[in-house]
Amino acid sequence: MGLDKIWVFGEANGDAVATITLEMLAKAREIADTVEVFMAGDGDDYAEELGDHGAETVHATGDLDGVMQGVAVASAVAAAIEGGVDAPNAFMLGTTQDGRDVAARLSVKLDAPVITNVVDLEVDGDDVLGNEPVFGGTVDVKTKNTSGKPGIFLVRPKSFAAESSGGAEADVEDLDVPDLGAAGAARVTDTFAEESDGPKLDEAAIVVSGGRGLGEKDAYALIEDLAKAVGGAAGASRAIVDAGWVPYSYQVGQTGKVVKPTVYIAAGISGATQHLVGMKGSKNIIAINKDPEAPIFAVADLGIVGDVHKVLPKLIEALNS
Amino acid sequence: MKVVVCVKQIPDPADPGALDPESNTLKRDAKLILDESDSYGVEMALQLVDTAGEGSVHLVSMAPNNEVGGLRTALAMGAESATLVSDEALKGTDALGTAKVLAAAIQRSEPDLVLAATESSDGYTGTVPEMVAELLSLPSVTFAKSIAIDGGNAKVQRQTEAGYDDVECPLPALVSVTAGVVEPRYPSFKGIMAAKSKPVDEVTVGDLGIDAGSVGWAGGGQEIVSVVDAPAREAGEVIEDEGDAHERIVSFLEELKVL
């Protein structure tokens, strides 16, 4: 087959393994003989689910007591490799806050490059290549790790389909965190969730997103009302998140969430590269925008050149009646 | 309080240009401007120094040429001085090489706090700040949506997938900020005039004690093996709203059987 071994960075949402981790496991077991997970937290809590998705072993640090995952997990992995643990040919980490932190710290520790924004991996002999879209997904680039060290790949969410392999519960092994010194001094003291009601943005079949074309913060209610009317989730462009109209958890794009719903409705969104990267994979795209030249129309299956303040209220009324 | 802000000068995103067919790296021969993402870090630094009642804001940047246009913008906002690592050898430098250069330049000013954007608008690897922290053995908090300094501690709200975490971090530390963390000021006319005479210290990688062979495209340990146009998504039906466009949307949704 392909590689001997891949290590996938495991992340969790409460009791469940994060979707991005399961997605990466599906790809990892396709291209490597042995797939193992490394993660913060208690490996026993996730060994069954990870095993069911193809992981043979879970290397887990145990409770970090608020220490940031980036420094703790990267230091633990580097120490394990130095201590003689058989190093993988490649690391896969999700493009998430903690995934990026771990990848960056690990890159320095191993003096190995990080190949970022990867949406696919392929094996060519002993080499691992990452495929990444650039310029808003108009150009595909393949990058080979030539460092002679394990490749570190940051993988974008929704690049692969998570799928059970029916594997047995994974073995759990301790991943000891060494003394972190000053670098380990940051501590999480409290955690807050700001998820909205209804289906989750990255899981909903219909996503309705609003942008600067709404004109003002109060007009975002139109987006929420439409999302409710179609049983979907409400999202936003980076422009209005930056403007403080809605929290970051609503953001769809390069930064923010990657969504691939059955229908994506972009209202008052021009279609900046930053946004297109996060929603171009949607099966059907409806765009409503005043400017007929807006780039969003280039990817829309149905484009409405019009004023969102006129179209949306009528649409919401028609759907609710 | 001494704050160093990492800033990047990038091609204008309105005209992002293309890949250089020889090196497959982003062409940077057009005029470079301050990455908008970095204006938030600059503003945050200015506000923190203002709140502390003492201190200064210093910029650190790197470029393969001696471009300073973007730095002047940040100086006009109120930063005091800048270090530009300018060296032909930096052409094509990847994230890790960039972090090594920035870390070496930052170390010279012994800051209490290092700020950076979470990611640049042109390369968006989103890894450089955390690499800099690791190289300098600093604690770090990435994706900050607010920062307050309380004595020798930074109190940060860090964005997470689900919401945010409160994080406490003793100084010196590195914090990367999200766009929108503060409202960046527009440089005043006075600021723009003053920026012209503010010190910009240009150094080479050699001045920082870094081997030129360890940076640049050759130093990166990665190689672009192919660049192809992605299959374009076909544009669909576009109609002008004559007051009844909502009906077309409803019928479109009905055809897809999602209602």
Based on the model shown, name its key terms.
heterodimer; A: 321 residues; alpha/beta; Rossmann fold; 2 domains; seven-stranded parallel sheet; 18 strands; elongated; B: 259 residues; 25% helix
Short characterization:
Chain A is of the alpha/beta class and 321 residues long. Chain A has two domains: 3-184, HUPs (Rossmann fold); 206-320, TPP-binding domain (Rossmann fold). Chain A has helices spanning 19-31, 47-52, 69-82, 97-110, 220-229, 238-242, 273-279, 308-320, and strands at 3-10, 12-13, 16-17, 32-39, 57-60, 90-94, 114-118, 120-124, 127-134, 139-145, 151-155, 171-174, 187-193, 206-210, 233-236, 263-267, 284-289, 302-305.
H/E element order of chain B:
EEEHEHEHEHEEEEHEEEH
What would you give as the CATH superfamily of chain B? HUPs
Cα separation of the termini of chain B: 57 Å
Give the averaged pLDDT of chain B, no decimals.
91
Please identify the oligomeric state: heterodimer
What does this structure look like?
- The complex is a heterodimer of chains A (321) and B (259).
- Chain A is of the alpha/beta class and 321 residues long.
- Chain A has 2 domains: 3-184, 3-Layer(aba) Sandwich (Rossmann fold), CATH 3.40.50; 206-320, 3-Layer(aba) Sandwich (Rossmann fold).
- Chain A is 26% helix and 29% strand.
- Chain A has helices spanning 19-31, 47-52, 69-82, 97-110, 220-229, 238-242, 273-279, 308-320; strands at 3-10, 12-13, 16-17, 32-39, 57-60, 90-94, 114-118, 120-124, 127-134, 139-145, 151-155, 171-174, 187-193, 206-210, 233-236, 263-267, 284-289, 302-305.
- In chain A, the strands form 4 sheets. In chain A, strands 7-11-6-1-4-5-12 form a 7-stranded parallel sheet, with helices on both faces. In chain A, strands 15-14-16-17-18 form a 5-stranded parallel sheet.
- The longest helix of chain A has 14 residues, at 69-82.
- The mean pLDDT of chain A is 94.
- Chain B has 259 residues and is of the alpha/beta class.
- Chain B has one domain (2-220): 3-Layer(aba) Sandwich (Rossmann fold), CATH 3.40.50.620.
- In chain B, 25% of the residues lie in helices and 30% in strands.
- Chain B is built from 6 helices and 13 strands.
- In chain B, the strands form 2 sheets. Chain B has a 9-stranded mixed sheet with strand order 9-8-7-10-6-1-4-5-11, sandwiched between helices. Chain B has a two-stranded antiparallel ribbon with strand order 2-3.
- Chain B is globular.
- The termini of chain B are far apart.
- The model of chain B has no long low-confidence stretch (mean pLDDT 91).
- At the A-B interface, α3, α4, β7, β9 and β10 of A face α3, α4, β7, β9 and β12 of B.
- β10 of chain A pairs antiparallel with β12 (222-229) of chain B, so a sheet runs across the interface.
